[in-house]
Specification:
The protein is of the alpha/beta class. It has one domain: TIM Barrel (Alpha-Beta Barrel), CATH 3.20.20.140. About 40% of the residues lie in helices and about 15% in strands. It is built from 11 helices and 8 strands. It has an 8-stranded parallel β-sheet. α8 runs parallel beside α9. It is globular and about 50 Å long. It starts with 5 loop residues before the first strand and ends with a helix. Bound molecules: zinc ion (ZN). The site of zinc ion (ZN) has 5 residues, from loops.
Length: about 300
């Protein structure tokens, strides 16, 4: 088997993970550089009036399908898990400064906190010399259809400042895994919204497919958006199996091509899965040509990062 050089477009430097551990995982997988992603999440967001009302309405709807989830259950889950995954933009910038050859930094902005918070944080991200912004409709409680003005503000600032966006698509973890609660992260909701930002570079993270219970949940919608907007990319983070799926590979090849597919591992977010495990799947898949593997593992990311 050929060993490919690679750039990992999706790594989480969680506060409890040492940089040595990240570098070791990268070396083991022969990763030249990794995009380190900040995570601006805050459990107190669920107590924001607008967010809480929206969650409660969704939960009420679920009861018709005889699914009963209490708001307090979700709130507890948010307070139990979010603090340990929160990753400060300053922390990302510090790591990039220490290992500029190995790390590229992306910040994050908690979109539901509103207009002035978004403006302030994007300024800060720019000042920290980070190259992009990670957002999650799920954990940052926004919906491009319902919060259009916030998403427009975010995209227009990122386009103007030449910051790429990594945009979570698919479900979320734990109690938030329910598709109804994650619906805001269906990539199809970007249809129309992206019309105004032809120069924005946006990575649809997880190929619309992130879900423990319903793998590939919004893969088709992700392809539809990629087909319509050629400034969109998708990463394989936590869903490398997409490239072992004959139908999915054929759909990517015929409808969008492999020039906008990026390798990402999501390390260390998926328990017991290393960067090497994820890269191995892509190196070994019989469905991609060596040229396509090179594009996905290295060249597409290299070109995108050079443009930032
Ligand atoms: Zn991730």
């Amino acid at each position: 088997m050929e060993d490919f050089r690679a750039i990992d477009f999706h790594v989480h430097p969680f506060p409890q993970v040492s940089p040595d551990e990240l570098l070791r995982a990268m070396d083991e997988a022969d990763i030249e550089r990794a995009v380190l992603i900040g995570l601006d999440i805050d459990p107190a967001d669920v107590e924001n009036k607008r967010v809480r009302e929206r969650i409660e309405a969704t939960l009420l709807n679920l009861t018709m399908g005889l699914i009963f989830v209490q708001f307090d259950e979700l709130k507890k889950e948010a307070y139990d898990f979010m603090p340990s995954f929160r990753t400060e933009n300053e922390h990302v910038a510090k790591l990039v400064k220490l290992w500029p050859e190995r790390f590229v930094g992306f910040g994050s902005v908690d979109v539901c906190k509103g207009q002035s918070y978004i403006e302030k944080t994007i300024r800060k991200i720019k000042k920290l010399r980070l190259k992009g912004v990670k957002v999650l409709p799920t954990a940052q409680f926004f919906n491009p259809a319902l919060d259009r003005e916030l998403v427009d503000l975010l995209f227009s600032l990122c386009e103007k400042e030449n910051l790429a966006v990594i945009y979570h698509t698919g479900c979320d973890v734990g109690a938030f895994e329910l598709p109804h609660l994650s619906e805001s992260a269906n990539p199809i909701l970007l249809n129309g919204v992206l019309d105004s930002y032809p120069n924005l570079k946006i990575v649809l993270s997880h190929f619309g497919s992130y879900s423990a219970k319903y793998p590939k949940i919004w893969f088709k919608e992700c392809i539809d958006i990629m087909k319509k907007y050629d400034n969109t990319y998708a990463d394989t983070a936590a869903v490398p199996y997409i490239l072992e799926d004959e139908k999915a590979v054929e759909k990517i090849r015929t409808e969008v091509g492999f020039e906008r597919v990026l390798f990402g591992s999501d390390y260390p977010a998926v328990i017991l899965v290393t960067i090497n495990d994820e890269k191995d799947i892509i190196e070994k898949t019989q469905l991609l040509t060596a040229e396509e593997k090179e594009l996905v593992l290295y060249e597409n990311a290299d070109e995108l990062l050079r443009s930032l």
